[in-house]
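Render Multisubunit Na+/H+ antiporter, MnhF subunit in 3D.
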Amino acid sequence: MTMVIGVAHALTLVLLVVAAVMALARMAMGPSSLDRSIATDLLTAVTVAGTGLYVVISGSTTALPVLVVLSLIGFTGPVAIARLISFRSAQVRDLRRSTAGAGAASQTRGSLERAADAAQACATVGPEAEQTWDDAEDGEDLDADTEGRR
C-alpha cells in the first residue's frame, strides 16, 4: 500500500511540475495581460498544491500557515488584476469615445447651448414668457432679461 501512495505522490509531483512549466510558458508568451494574469493565477494554484503535497508527504504541519497565505494571495491577486483591467478598459473606451466624437462635439455643443437657452426660457413665468421664448430661439442673451425675475 505504501508503494502505491509513493507512486501517487511522485505522479502528482510530476504533474505539478508540468503544470508550472506550462504556466511559465504562458506567462512568457501570453499576447495579452489577461493571459498572463490567468497564468499567474495557475502558478499560484500549483504552488498551493505543491505546498499541500509537501504537507501530506512530510506529515509536518509547519507549512500550513504558508498554505493559508498562498491561498489568500491566490484569491486577492486575480480580483485586483481584474479590477485593474476593467478600469483600464473603461479608460480606453472613454478615450475612444472622445476621439471618435471630436468632430461631432462642436455640433453637439451648439445643440446643448440651444437646449439650455430653451430650458431657461421655459423657466420664465408670467406674461412675458412667450417673448422670452422667441428671444431664446433668436439666440439673444436671456441673462439680462431674466435677471430681475430671479
